[in-house]
């Protein structure tokens, strides 16, 4: 069996894996310059088998020109919030430094950490990516329902209503029967009935000479 050949443009010495998918993710691109710079300080500590035990001690960061503790705290919080790193151990007095892991790499040793293997979710940086939308592949066109307002107004344009999908086949039954109203239902004219009406007209005088009132 032939051995895998070393890439022509590969670097010499140790290096850390940083997939292009992480660099192109929403979590990384929106993290900000300071948070990205701090992420590379954690990357520099990774040796291939110590993920989950990376540290952000003031001594380490001071050698690499980090001067403000507040800046480090804000950048660290941004990386955790965006799922690029996870805190694996809480440090403090007599407990040593806090430890962190890169979420696109596995953690091979959980001994001494505050999280177990079942609680670690590699790939948390993907949670900020947009969920792909599903296209409607149905061949049936969406049903069209005509909505009418005032009887004296013009007919509005038909409105398309998206059909609902269910897990069971349901017989399609029309909700409304065919209307007997003629197509010229708006602005219709009707001939008034002829002949005498039993209702008196306001202002018309009766036999007494006085106007009749409407009852």
Describe the structure.
There is one protein chain. The chain has 215 residues and is of the alpha+beta class. 19% of the residues lie in helices and 7% in strands. It has 5 helices and 5 strands; from the N terminus they run αααβααββββ. Helix 3 packs across helix 5. The longest helix has 13 residues, at 33-45. The radius of gyration is 38 Å and the shape is globular. The protein starts with 19 loop residues before the first helix and ends in a 55-residue tail after the last strand. Mean pLDDT is 75; it is low at 144-151 and 163-168.
Alpha-carbon Rg, integer: 38 Å
Give the overall silhouette. Answer: globular
Q: Describe the biggest sheet? A: 3 strands, antiparallel
What is the end-to-end distance?
Answer: 111 Å
Structural class comes to alpha+beta
Q: What is the tally of helical segments?
A: 5
- The number of E-state strands comes to 5
Q: Are there runs of 5+ residues with pLDDT below 50, and where?
A: 144-151, 163-168
Order of H and E elements: HHHEHHEEEE
Mean pLDDT: 75
Helix content: 10-25%
**Relative strand content:** 5-15%
How are the strands ordered across the major sheet?
A: 1-3-2
């Amino acid at each position: 069996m032939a051995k895998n050949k070393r890439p022509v443009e590969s670097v010499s010495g140790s290096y850390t894996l940083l997939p292009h998918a992480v660099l192109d993710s929403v979590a990384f691109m929106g993290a900000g310059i300071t948070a990205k710079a701090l992420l590379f300080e954690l990357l520099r500590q990774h040796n291939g088998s110590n993920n989950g035990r990376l540290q952000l001690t003031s001594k380490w960061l001071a050698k690499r020109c980090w001067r403000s503790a507040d800046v480090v705290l804000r950048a660290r919080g941004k990386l955790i919030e965006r799922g690029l790193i996870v805190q694996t151990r809480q440090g403090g007095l007599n407990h040593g430094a806090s430890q962190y892991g890169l979420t696109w790499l596995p953690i091979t040793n959980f001994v001494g950490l505050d999280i177990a293997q079942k609680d670690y979710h590699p790939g948390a940086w993907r949670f900020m990516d947009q969920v792909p939308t599903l296209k409607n592949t149905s061949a049936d066109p969406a049903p069209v329902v005509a909505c009418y307002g005032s009887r004296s107004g013009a007919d509005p344009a038909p409105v398309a209503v998206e059909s609902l999908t269910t897990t069971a086949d349901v017989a399609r039954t029309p909700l409304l029967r065919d209307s007997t109203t003629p197509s010229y239902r708006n602005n219709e004219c009707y001939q008034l009935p002829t002949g005498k009406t039993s209702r008196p007209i306001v202002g018309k005088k009766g036999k007494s000479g006085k106007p009749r009132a409407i009852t």
